[in-house]
Task: inverse folding
């Protein structure tokens, strides 16, 4: 494994691998650094039905196809944890736990992770009834009963979306929550949505898949029978190491222009970690294509400048 590349991509999810494919096809040497496994969050998704070209595919299988495609074209992969990023005029340094790499351009496809409830049964039933994306997985629960856990706009939006697919939607919110009138009125028009204020989720129960959700209200433990639990308590971008390096929005997402370029020349961002992304596989792949293309153009510009100076 060499230590210097034209482009280094941090993150091997759909955005990162797409960026790698476009960059290597533009003639650039490309390294993708991933701390876990190729595919990123895809490995946690069950069946996927909304990615063009695949009527139905398992998330893990799609992740393997992404990786295989990139490797066939000549993209290098290394598994390591990025600790810091240094930006210099003519090069970037990516410091990892076990290695240090140098590149002309860097593409950040760090992704983000969903906040978890951290209750019993949640990890056990991920992909088996526990979901963090109503838009991704809602169709698998058509005509079934589901619970949405959360108190913010995303939870209300998920509940309204699921109300058009599911038989019944229970919305469990925090204690002393005061909803705005718009959300209250929206739920009033949905006979199959039950808003449960002050219901604190305690345990997800099932055998091979989710069968019920235990919650506490007024000091009493109760149970609702559901086929799915949608957790909607927010997402967290993996950008802690970038504070002071790049411009982030108030939630920690990387701000970019239409070319996926960040506030720092030669550093690009794509996929879930980018501000204003709708965080879907298709949009991540699109972001990656743009980032890979413009990062390649940046590298060519730097090569041309060096020739002129020489």
Result:
């Amino acid at each position: 494994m060499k230590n210097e590349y034209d482009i280094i991509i941090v993150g091997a999810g759909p955005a990162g691998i797409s960026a790698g494919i476009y960059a290597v096809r533009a003639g650039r040497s490309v390294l993708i650094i991933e701390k876990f496994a190729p595919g990123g969050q895809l490995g946690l998704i069950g069946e996927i039905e909304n990615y063009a070209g695949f009527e139905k595919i398992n998330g893990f299988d799609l992740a393997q196809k992404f990786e295989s495609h990139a490797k066939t074209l000549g993209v290098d992969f290394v598994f390591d944890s990025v600790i810091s990023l240094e930006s210099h005029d003519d090069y970037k340094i990516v410091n990892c736990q076990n290695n240090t790499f140098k590149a002309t351009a860097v593409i950040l496809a760090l992704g983000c992770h969903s906040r978890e409830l951290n209750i019993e049964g949640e990890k056990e039933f991920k992909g088996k009834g526990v979901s963090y994306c109503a838009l991704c997985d809602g169709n698998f629960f058509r005509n079934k009963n589901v619970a949405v856990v959360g108190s913010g706009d995303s939870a209300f939006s998920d509940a309204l979306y699921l109300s058009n697919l599911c038989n019944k939607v229970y919305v469990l919110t925090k204690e002393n929550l005061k909803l705005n009138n718009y959300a209250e009125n929206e739920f009033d028009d949905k006979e199959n949505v039950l808003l449960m204020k002050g219901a604190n989720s305690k345990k997800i129960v099932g055998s091979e898949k989710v069968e019920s959700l235990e919650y506490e209200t007024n000091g009493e433990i109760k149970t609702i029978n559901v086929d799915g639990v949608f957790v909607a308590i927010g997402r967290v971008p993996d950008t802690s190491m970038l504070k002071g390096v790049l411009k982030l929005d108030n939630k920690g997402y990387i701000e970019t222009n239409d070319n996926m370029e960040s506030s720092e020349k030669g550093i690009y961002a794509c996929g879930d970690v980018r501000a204003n992304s709708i965080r879907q596989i298709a949009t991540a792949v699109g972001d990656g294509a743009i980032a890979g293309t413009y990062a390649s153009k940046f590298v060519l510009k730097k090569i041309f400048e060096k020739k002129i100076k020489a």
